[in-house]
Design brief:
Number of helices: 0
Structural class: mainly beta
Helix content: under 10%
Low-confidence stretches: none
Mean pLDDT: 83
Strand content: 25-35%
Distance between the termini: 39 Å
Strand order of the largest sheet: 1-2
Number of strands: 2
Largest sheet: 2 strands, antiparallel
Shape: rod-shaped
Length: 56
């Protein structure tokens, strides 16, 4: 008789990064308040710390 395979637990995706682990941030230049430019950079999601899984 074959052994049963256990199913992996369903993990919810992080709502902030949609399960990717990365988000895009606007690039700001200048001192003090900083002027927003049209450029974007990728950053690690602060909610899930890059894992892509929802914490709650």
């Amino acid at each position: 008789m074959a052994a049963r395979k256990t199913a992996k637990p369903q993990v919810k995706e992080c709502p902030d990064c949609d399960g990717k682990g990365e988000i895009t941030e606007t690039v700001r230049v200048g001192t003090r308040k900083g002027r927003a430019t049209d450029h974007r950079q990728s950053a690690m999601c602060g909610s899930c710390w890059g894992s892509g899984e929802a914490t709650n």
